[in-house]
Amino acid sequence: MTPSLVPTPSSVHALAVDNCLTRNDWICGAYFSSSRVDALQTALLQHIGIVVASVVLGFVIAFPLALLGRRYRKLEALVVGTSTAIYTIPSLALFSLLVPLTGLGVETVVLGLGLYSLTILVRSMIDGLRAVPDDVRESALGMGYAPARLLWRVELPLALPTIMGGVRVATVSAVALTTVGAILDYGGLGSLLIEGSSTNFKAQVLFTSFMCVALAVALDLLLVGLQRWLTPWRRTAASR
Amino acid sequence: MAHPLAADGGLAMINDVYAWLTDGSNWVGGSGDQALTRLYEHLLLTAVSVVMAIIVGLPLAVWLGHRGRGGTLAVNVSNIGRAIPIVALLALLSLGLFGSSVLGPFGRAGLATLVTLALFALPPIITNTWVGMREVDSDTIEAARGMGMSEGEVLRRVELPLALPIIFSGIRLAFVQVWATATIAALVAGPGLGRIITHGYDADDPAEIIAGALIVAVIALMLEVGLAGVQRLLDPVGRARRDTAKRDTRRGSDNRLPVGPTP
What we know:
The complex is a heterodimer. Chain A is mainly α. In chain A, 77% of the residues lie in helices and 0% in strands. Chain A has one domain: MetI-like (MetI-like fold, Orthogonal Bundle). Chain A has ten helices and no strands. Chain A is elongated, with a radius of gyration of 23 Å. Chain B is built from eleven helices and no strands. Chain B is elongated.
């Protein structure tokens, strides 16, 4: 970490040079020194890593829960109720409550965000699977599909758009919420953002904010592409 | 150096947190930034910003929904809101436009925090209100017009009452979200209960961190449950439906919109 990320008017350099850094402009080319670009890159990679890990974690836990919840209504109420309760807890508090269990590392951030993703994903999975028309299911059973094959070949493909909708919401939310991980020093771009905010460094605040939104949009577009690729039949149906 | 949070655990921690929560001096007194002041700030911020969002968003969405316009805006505003980190918006507003000076009872960076929170309360209110208005059965509206109701009467006496449950669940969602968001405000500059948590981290005091987090989380859950109860009381149609036919196993609190975005 570079010690002088902040323009310090009292320093010798600041007195000598008048540029956008010493003026603390919002937009500043001189901000992109090689050390800051390195820091931005590291932060961006950490941000992406946290988002991907937490959504994958949420997905892996949500899938079996959704299958069980679909079968047993009582369990569904329990799963949805509990995960809604978790979702209600503000992220700063959730991370803090997890700290005694998982420590001050990146695991706490990933686990906390994973729990939020879980809420969104369980709901979208149950909704998606439940929306599969009964006669489609009946036909597949009549054609001799075993339950597992029915799930993989018929139900999941049909539920995919709804599930992917959930994955998109979970991902975009995770990008925004990762910034709160800065409290544990694992906030990706959020760490730089908050550092910039507390030191009144406008160029850093604006650029890292922009990067957060751009990352959310980029990941969302990526998921839209993935969904189109996974559901080719919907494309042909739309073009007809 | 091993951090106290990582090293400590179990019973000792629970005792420390209990001690923090039951120590009166943590709640009132001294420099005026004890828990009770923070709680007051937090409640005030949440309430005022949600009311601000209702004043701006509700009439707009009711009008758009009534006219059947602005669907793209109403639906996408939630998706846009989700992508913007609160920390970013608050940092931008408090460094720029609004500054971080103390605003009366709202505390440090009060104006920037209020505006940020109100902006975050807008999407659920706008989206739910619009969808609620659009989901009113068009036959019902036709029938009301056929009975000779004016447009204003259709709006006031048919569409609004029928849309009310979904509108209210939008407001409830806004309340709970803003409560959560207001906590994060402390990371940047903002006032509110989040300050207890951030102070705990700064002071390396695990008990304070956990105690602050507990206060925030418990009140968030109480808000969610309490408002769901209010919603059930306020929803005569839903109540009548539940009383007559129990075919619908979903509770009134599930009135909120599906979480998946509309593409």
